[in-house]
Amino acid sequence: MLYLKKYFTEGLIQFTILLSLIGVRVDVDTYLNNQLPPLREIILGPSSAYTQTQFHNLRNTLDGYGIHPKSVDLDHFFTTRRLLNQVRQLDRLSVPSTELNTWLVHRDSETVVSPSSQSGPSITLENGAGLEDVNNPDATPAMRGGSGAPESTYNLNAADSSLGAVAPEGNQEQGGRDGNDDLTKEDIDLIDILWRQDIDLGAGREVFNYSNRQKENEEEQKPNPHESKDGNEEQESWRNGVNLQGVQPVDGETGESIPEQLPGIGSQTSLSLQECLRLLEATFPFGEESEFPAPVVNREIVSNEAPSTSQGLPLAPLLPSAEPQLDLEQQWQDIMAIMELQAMEVNNTSVPTNSSSVNGTTGTVESNTVGNFELSTGSTPVNQDVSLHQASLPSCSQDFPQIFNPQLDSISITPRTTLPRLSSSNSSNINSTFGTTNLTGIFLPPHINSSSNNITSTPILPDPFSTLLEESMLDEISLLDLAMEEGFSQAQASQLEDELDSDSGLSLDSSHSPASPSSSETSCSSAASSSSTSATFSEEGAVGYSTDSEVTTVEPEEGAVGGYQPGYSKLCRMSYQDPSQFHSLPHLDSISHNHTYNLPLSSAFAEHPELPIPTGKKNVRDKHNSKLQTHQDLLDKHASRDERRARAMKIPFSNEKIINLPVEEFNELLAKHHLSEPQLALIRDIRRRGKNKMAAQNCRKRKLDTIINLEQGVHDLRRDKARLLKEKMEFIRSIRQMKQKVQSLYQEVFSQLRDEEGRPYPPSEYSLQYSADGSVLIMPRCVTTAEQNRKPEKKQKDKKK
DNA sequence: GGGCGATGTCATGTC
DNA sequence: ATGACATGACATCGC
């Protein structure tokens, strides 16, 4: 069912994306808000009112442990978690409201009124969780559990916003702000600050024109969280009217860079290219990659590159590139893989409270975004928390290279009807990015189709914001890893250790999720018996096969400690030490598995011959059926055949001794007693079988350990995979950032170049190229393309270096 | 009554 | 050679 739901949800999302791409507005909100339980439950999961089976796994969570799946305490539990998360987020620079609030802010700024003009639908549509709340005031946070990955959201509950969005209380607190009624003074102040920032950045109020916004909203209403995220980021960047990257003025309509708008450039005549490059290198933090990236020739890109004042034409649309989409798809798949991983791990991974604390350790600004991402991972599309937090960033412009600051004002006012798209996130291009000698390839990366669903590449974003966003997203992934990792190894391990100390191990196992066989078992093995190499041996020592002296004295304990204990492997705890425990568990009364191979029955019999020893199976069975087993009954019941045989044969010592004594002592024992041949044969058989029994137990335990270790290995590999994916995205992000910087610097340098007559070089006709010796040439494009393979010997107008 | 898991036992191989 | 151990296969038991 879970898979069904997942597939259906994904399919629905994809279908919705498709519809959105072809211009059909898909108002998921209405569907969801119309209270179509099946659909909503399929997408968001059943509410706790219907079923809470999804929360069985909460037993594996730290906080959820001990809460019965059907306990009404669940709601309390989630409320507690939500509040706890809020407390944890106090140390973060985060606006308590969700992204919805951001929309509110801007929408209100449009009307220059209070945030009360917020439009619920478009926003809530972006937030599936919010949707749920809107029409389901009764819906408790527990409902989120129905999303199929409840722990995922709670695990990494940096997504406290998600909680709040879902929880009724959260609606009052956060959604309530959505309702504009509960704006606190801080909120209003923040709104005002944000608005003033926008104004300062040159974004006029017309920027927030409602029609534009609505248009954009339609784009953003695509269920695809990443896409809408893109849109949001784009809006944010555009709203700020600045390329926050600071490096590149952008035509608001085309996304094309507009070097001519750089103030002062026009007055600068023939700035030395070397100077420019020095400037460029000084400002361009290549970091480890350091060396100025080998320029690349991307012909398509180059041909389309023509950022000129006169033109101001949309170049981006001229660059339809299938590759970026492929890459986007790839990255999307990666994300989905991570999500799936998470979903898979959800059952295995307890919801570690630490994860939230871990979130708390992440960047203050990013935390909420992280949370949102989590929310989206919970199978609910969306989340655009970003813009709010971005907007709340103090002095984000400080990240800009100082030299670009002058551009801000002029650029920010740039009218814009479409979202600027600055960079590509083409991972496939990345490989070729620094390969050849044409800088334009890097400097003018292909513009991505606006409809592309690129999670990782949110190229439109100005750098500081995009950086923050991407980092937050990546941190999200890392948190995911952490949740998978630490949630499993620490929280769950410790929890299971607690379980080992509790009597609830059996019942826990009964609710054991089939999807998480390894988790408990692994933890059990780690906690109880650990690896087969360490604890096993110690246990074997305790068994006493080798320590003769202990055999007689420690016998009573052997049954509980000895060798292979199925209770430890399967139930984490099922001990015969205290049989009375079973009486407290009525449903276990009838359990009569023979776990007593190490119990000192025979020894007890040997040392207390007066004890009645069962003489036949039938007798034992009768007692089984009686279910009124006394302690003695249990002992009798577990008398092995060999013990009965030994008694029948009047063997004068216990089977324990027969089995566990070292050979020498065993032989001495035999010699000490004058035994008949049948007695000797029986004793030897008993010893053989007894040893083999323990050997079999150990063997099975080893098998189990092996399986557990393999499962752990699988888990580790999955975690590594997620980590590698995260790293990959980080690399992609950094490369994209570098490309953006290089591009803007290229524009900067190129725009300042002047020929002998002081005229600028038209970018459509010239491009910069690196030569092999490190010099930079400005070459005509026709030559560039025609003589790409030749050594550039042409147009050595400005030769640098 | 059969399936299934846990356990015991045997046969065999290895050290 | 012998004892201890490991392990696959099968049997038994109880649910």
Automatic annotation (TrEMBL):
It holds the Pfam family bZIP_Maf. Its main location: endoplasmic reticulum. One of its GO terms (molecular function) is DNA-binding transcription factor activity, RNA polymerase II-specific. Residues 351-365, 503-539 have a biased composition (Low complexity). It is found in: Endoplasmic reticulum membrane; Nucleus. One of its GO terms (biological process) is cholesterol metabolic process. GO terms for cellular component: endoplasmic reticulum membrane; nucleus. Residues 110-156, 210-237, 351-378, 490-563, 615-641, 782-801 are annotated as: Disordered. Belongs to the bZIP family. CNC subfamily. This is Endoplasmic reticulum membrane sensor NFE2L1.
